[in-house]
Design a protein that fits this description.
Blueprint lengths: L1 H23 L20 E5 L4 E4 L2 H11 L3 E7 L6 E3 L4 E4 L12 E4 L2 H11 L2 E3 L1 H10 L1 H12 L2 H11 L3 H4 L14 H6 L3 H10 L13 H14 L3
Antiparallel strand pairs: 1-2, 1-3, 3-4, 5-6, 5-7
Helix pairs in contact: 2-4, 6-10, 9-10
Length: 238
């Protein structure tokens, strides 16, 4: 009995370790959409490029954009197994496409499984079709227009929310009302746009701080951080 408990404990600890590694990885946010990889670990994709660099993306939606530009530069592709939480070889994975299980950045989920039998079990319970990475990529690329329309609709209220939160957390004390400038830089300047040319940089600056600004690590939840980031992003000089 004790031996069985030890084995079960080891499995749980191993699963927790793998769960943490999939969640955390080497970075916090998707470089394309700035979604938190820890929150969306079930759909994370990790690409290793020919130069040895490795980058995580929140979903096959974002990874497919990189694939279209750098397909020949991708040497290794890993994806989170929806069932076991392990990172697996995406080229050998079985993708459940179009089930009623939620995806990330898409209306049509594309979830990966190492085991075909497990994928079929989920299919029986949640519908959808089973395919390969190529099938998942094709669906992601073909449905991108529809997905982007859905995403824009979802984030439409984020700037207003972020504006209120920025005021609540004291951003305007230095950056001026609405980020129009004060003791700190105006968000609508070319200088700011050049230094903060993607949303991940904005998140890092907010959380980690700068030479002139105190960081908000531990003071903001991810949803609050994302809303403020979206708002600041909309204020940048085009």
């Amino acid at each position: 009995m004790r031996k069985g408990l030890i084995v079960c404990s080891l499995i749980l600890v191993s699963g927790l370790f793998l769960f943490t590694s999939v969640q955390a990885g080497e970075q916090k946010w998707c470089p394309l959409c700035s979604m938190n990889l820890k929150m969306f670990w079930k759909t994370t994709n990790w690409l290793t490029f020919s130069d040895g660099s490795r980058t995580g993306y929140c979903s096959i939606h974002c990874a497919s954009k990189v694939y279209q530009k750098r397909a020949t530069d991708i040497g290794r592709w890993e994806v989170a197994d929806y069932d076991t939480k392990r990172l697996i070889n995406a080229y050998k994975a079985h993708f459940l496409i179009g089930s009623d299980l939620a995806g990330t950045m898409t209306a049509v989920s594309k979830l990966a499984f190492a085991s075909l039998d497990v994928a079929k079990r989920y299919q029986k319970e949640h519908g959808g079709t089973i395919g390969t990475l190529d099938d998942g990529l094709r669906r992601a690329i073909e449905g991108r227009g529809e997905d982007m329309a859905m995403i824009k609709k979802k984030v439409a209220k984020m700037p207003a929310m972020g504006k209120k939160l920025a005021g609540k957390h004291g951003c305007y004390k230095c950056h001026g009302e609405g980020g129009t400038g004060g003791a700190a830089i105006d968000w609508n300047t070319k200088e700011f746009a050049k230094s903060m040319d993607n949303r991940v940089k904005i998140k890092k600056a907010i959380m980690g701080g700068t030479e002139k600004m105190e960081g908000y690590e531990g003071k903001l939840g991810e949803k609050e951080l994302h809303a403020i980031t979206i708002y600041v992003w909309t204020q940048r000089a085009k």
